[in-house]
Amino acid sequence: MYDFFQWSEIEPEIQVNESVAVHLHLFYEDLKQEFFDYFSNIPFGYDLYISCREGADAEGLRNFFAGLKNANSVTVRATPNRGRDIAPLYVLFGKEIQAHDFFLHVHSKKSLYTGTEQVSWRTKSLDMLTGSAVTVEKIFRFFKEKHAGLVYPEAFNFFAPIVNSWLANKAEGIRLLEKLGLKDDEGSFFSYPAGSFFWARTDAVRKLFELNFSYEDFP
After folding, report:
1. How deeply is 181 buried, as exposed, middle or buried, from its count of CB atoms within 10 A (0-12, 13-18, 19+)?
2. E strands of the chain, at which residues?
3. How far apart are CA 127 and CA 214, in angstroms?
């Protein structure tokens, strides 16, 4: 963990020469302008990969996001409604994204299952990861100086801390750990980037890509 006061002391990164991918799972197309605005804050070149629901106007979305000044390429593909935002990351675009040095994963989170759209959860997460060019530059400075593997938003006070843990996913999580040759640290609190918004150094999660997931691996 890196607290806010230390974070504020990090100098912005001047230049990023590594290859960068951005993955957006755009289940709700009505949020496309919001993501366009946030991605406009990324101050260096990147390849944009967008997964959308089946039947969406993929070509229209490609043309819309092609207007981003630093997007080197824009690829849009429809995905089955399975595995939420994670399956498209590892199944639909896994080969492309793991060819980059770093990647950003975000999605059009509404969490309607909670009874109301969680706008604050989505926008606060995006603010912390792409809220400004300086924010993005600091994240990459942090990646390089601390050799960090994952950068994700802090837990928000409108949810109990337990939402960042395994919850009902523990049994499946332990099976996944076994595939990766890792052990569950019983008794410890499993801290997960709830909402699954994060920047990653690809090598830090490469073993997940190498498992070659299929859609059938997801509920």
Report:
1. exposed
2. 20-26, 46-53, 71-79, 102-107, 150-151, 198-201
3. 32
- In three-state secondary structure terms, 146 is helix
pTM here? 0.90
Residuewise pLDDT in 10s, the chain (219 residues): 455 446 667 777 668 889 999 999 999 999 999 999 999 999 999 999 999 999 999 999 999 999 999 999 999 999 999 999 999 999 999 999 999 999 999 999 876 455 456 678 889 999 999 999 999 999 999 998 888 999 998 777 666 777 777 788 888 888 899 999 988 776 666 677 878 999 999 999 999 999 999 999 998
DSSP annotation of 132 reads: S
Backbone angles phi, psi at 36, to 5 degrees: -55, -45
Kindly state the DSSP code that residue 181 receives in the 8-state scheme.
Answer: T
